[in-house]
Specification:
By secondary structure, this protein is mainly α. Helix 3 packs parallel to helix 12. The longest helix is centred in the middle third of the chain and has 26 residues. The protein is globular and about 55 Å long.
Length: 248
């Protein structure tokens, strides 16, 4: 495990993503490299390495907060947000990686999370009706898939109508469509990292395109792909036919 997530490895992974120099402590939280790394670790069945990533980023955040003299209350808010971003990434990854892997990742993360940074109630609105979720899912799905939305939804409906309904209403309406913690682009990154570790090229292509459609530059999308490939390879993932490239 140690070789997968040493300080040197994590620093190198972080350096792959083109991000501005740290000008505030919030930059540590917003740099999405670690989201890709942890979902690939979870999907690659190496959840025991996730706490090492958390401790690495958490330590970087604390040092930045000290450097920029962040007030105590704001510092705590940033730590809570960071913790929630880790949790929501793993939760969102479970829709495609399998919930057993998401659960194991979240269990490992819990053990490294200070008590005061743990949530005790759902963040998502639990009172939304299924029609509400269906509408939100349709909006989010179309925002992600753009001009390909009809063909992808049509495929899901054709292979099994229950899959089409579940994907739109539950996956995109409730799980992915909740963007208070991870925005649309970050959700695309989570899906790319998960799908690369799961070796599903059709969906990797979909979500690399979705990331570009959602605002990622070519360099950013290529970096997300590379982070996922590197950490997945370290976790022992093998690809039958390689990993799709980012389209220019």
């Amino acid at each position: 495990m140690a070789a997968i997530a040493t300080e040197a490895v994590l620093q190198r992974l972080k350096s792959l993503y083109p991000y501005q120099a740290i000008a505030s402590s919030s930059d540590v939280v917003q740099n999405p490299w670690y989201l890709v790394a942890i979902v690939a670790l979870s999907t690659g069945n190496r959840p025991e390495a996730i706490p090492l990533v958390f401790k690495h980023v958490f330590g970087e955040l604390e040092r930045a907060q000290e450097q920029f003299s962040v007030p105590t209350e704001k510092a705590q808010e940033e730590k809570l947000l960071l913790s929630r971003r880790f949790r929501d990434a793993l939760f969102k990854s479970g829709m495609v990686a399998g919930y057993s892997k998401a659960i194991n990742g979240l269990v490992s993360l819990l053990e490294a999370t200070p008590e005061e940074l743990r949530d005790t109630k759902p963040l998502r609105e639990t009172t939304l009706t299924l029609p509400d979720l269906e509408k939100r899912g349709q909006v989010f799905f179309r925002s992600l898939y753009g001009e390909t939305a009809d063909s992808v939804q049509g495929l899901l409906d054709k292979i099994y109508p229950d899959m089409g309904w579940f994907s739109n209403t539950i996956a995109y309406g409730s799980v992915y469509g909740y963007t208070d913690i991870l925005n649309q682009l970050e959700t695309s990154y989570v899906l790319v990292g998960t799908l690369i570790a799961a070796d599903t090229p059709r969906q990797i292509n979909w979500h690399l395109d979705n990331a570009r459609r959602g605002g990622a530059t070519f360099e950013q999308a290529r970096a997300v792909r590379q982070i996922a490939v590197d950490i997945s390879e370290s976790a022992g993932v093998k690809w039958r036919d390689g990993v799709p490239e980012v389209k220019e």
